[in-house]
Amino acid sequence: MNYKYVCNNIDDTITLAQNIESEKFRGMVICLDGDLGSGKTLFTKAFAKALGVTDDVTSPTYTIVKEYLGELPLYHMDVYRLDGNIDGIGFFDYFNNDGIVIIEWANTIKKYLPKKRLDIKIKVVNEDKRVFLFEAHGTEYEDVCEMIL
Fold first, then answer.
1. pLDDT: is 87 or 74 the higher one?
2. Averaged pLDDT, 32-40
3. Exposed, middle or buried by CB within 10 Å (0-12, 13-18, 19+), for 135?
4. Potential cystine with 21: which of 50, 75, 78, 105 (Cβ 3.0-4.6 Å)?
5. Which helix (H) or strand (E) holds 144?
6. Cα torsion for 21, 26, 27, 31, to the nearest 10°?
7. Are strands 29-34 and 100-104 parallel, antiparallel or unpaired?
8. Which residues, in sequence order, are CB contacts of 127 under 8 Å at separation 6+?
9. At what angle do helices 10-22 and 139-148 cross, to 10 degrees?
10. What is the C-alpha separation between 145 and 42, in angstroms, rounded?
11. DSSP 53
């Protein structure tokens, strides 16, 4: 199922991430895609803050995965530099656990992603405005979208 949400400014993006966090569940996987500067890390920071993460959330571009503790563990991945190769990073260990996984640049490793997940494509309209396109894979993710959109 597909959904669309328009954010007119940074505050809208933060609110959207917080609303999705409010519908979280163990084992949730959120896959983010969009151009540089589209708001992937901003979304993740807002989600993490709502989750109770007190650490400074930054893009894990060079470390690939950063782990944060909040109400649930948060595994923040940036797979841009993997060039489609996930060997040696224990990628599958992060799924089907008690935490939440957020993957930036997820489209670069699409064939490895779990079947059940929430894909979010962020399109830049202008300096402030973003369009979020959601594709829910699985009833849990459809329920999340129905609750917040």
1. 74
2. 96
3. middle
4. 50
5. helix 139-148
6. 0
7. parallel
8. none
9. 130
10. 19
11. -
C-alpha closest to that of 99 among 132, 121, 77? 77
Each residue's pLDDT tens digit, 96-147:
788 999 999 999 999 999 999 999 999 999 999 999 999 999 999 999 999 9
| Amino acid type, 129 | K
Half-sphere exposure of 138 (CA within 13 A, CB side): 13
Q: Give the start-to-end residue ranges of the domains of the chain.
A: 2-90+98-148
Of the chain, the end-to-end C-alpha distance in Å amounts to 12
Cα separation values, 4 from 26, 34, 103, 138, 140, Å = 24, 14, 19, 17, 17
Q: Look up the pTM and report it.
A: 0.94
Amino acid at 82: L
Q: Taking the domain 2-90+98-148, which CATH number applies? A: 3.40.50.300
User: 37 phi and psi, to 5 degrees?
Assistant: 80, 10
Strands of the chain (E only): list them: 2-7, 29-34, 65-69, 73-78, 100-104, 117-124, 130-137
